[in-house]
Amino acid sequence: MLDTIKKLNSVSEEEKLDFMSEINNFLIDHLNINEEEGVLEFAFHSGNNARCPGIEYCGKIYDSEDYNRIYIRFGTFGDSVNIIRKRIRIANVCFRKKYRRQNKGTELIKILYKLAVKYNYEVINVDTVNENSEPLVIKLGFSRIENLCNYHIEVTELAKYFNIDTKNECS
User: Fold this and answer.
1) CA-to-CA distance for 27 and 44, rounded, in angstroms?
2) Residues 13-45: b if buried by 16+ CB within 10 A, e if exposed
3) pLDDT tens digit string along 13-34?
């Protein structure tokens, strides 16, 4: 079983580089990040007897409530009820105060949506939604996972919000 999960979690080098490039461009274009402000890294998250590929960015911490942080896992793995599917999991996102309430979260999810379509992901999860992020995930049509602060949406459902022609967008 563990070998099957490891094989499912394998992500192509092209896919890793594409995720890294898109998140890096988001940091530069939307958060005005430069190299001195933090490091974007490819990392593996270990959990549930599997290693999930992911991208992690943590900027310089200005104070405990004012920093940029993005941690996204992607691959094939289970959810809270252990349904194994190809998914993008937004594990942690925090924007500096000056970037909040400016549609940065929507732009990030739009980028992840396009990657999901390109690489055949089925679901996008958002973990540990709080009072700052809940209005966004509800606006985009995410559903709460029973008894948790986590939300998810089928990629096909998210297409309705962004109104993107996926045939032309990701060819």
Assistant:
1) 20
2) eebeebbeebbeebbeebbebeeebbebeeeeb
3) 888 888 888 888 888 888 877 6
Q: How many whole angstroms separate alpha carbon 7 and alpha carbon 53?
A: 12
Q: Cα(40)–Cα(127) distance, rounded to whole angstroms?
A: 20
- What is the token pair recorded at 51? 């290693």
**Measured between alpha carbons, how far is 47 from 9 in angstroms, rounded to an integer?**
12
Distance between the two ends of the chain, CA-based, in angstroms?
A: 34
Q: What gap in Å lies between CA 15 and CA 18, rounded to an integer?
A: 5
> 80 is written with which tokens?
């809270």
Number of residues assigned to the chain = 171
99 phi, psi to nearest 5 deg: -105, 0
Distance CA(71)–CA(89), nearest Å, equals 9
Pairing assessment for the beta strands 123-126 and 85-94 based on DSSP bridges:
parallel
Which pTM value belongs to this model? 0.80
Q: Render pLDDT for 140-154 as a digit per residue (tens, 0 to 9).
A: 999 888 767 888 899
44: three-class secondary structure by DSSP: strand
Distance CA 170, CA 118 (A): 5
Distance separating alpha carbons of residues 61 and 68, to the nearest angstrom:
8
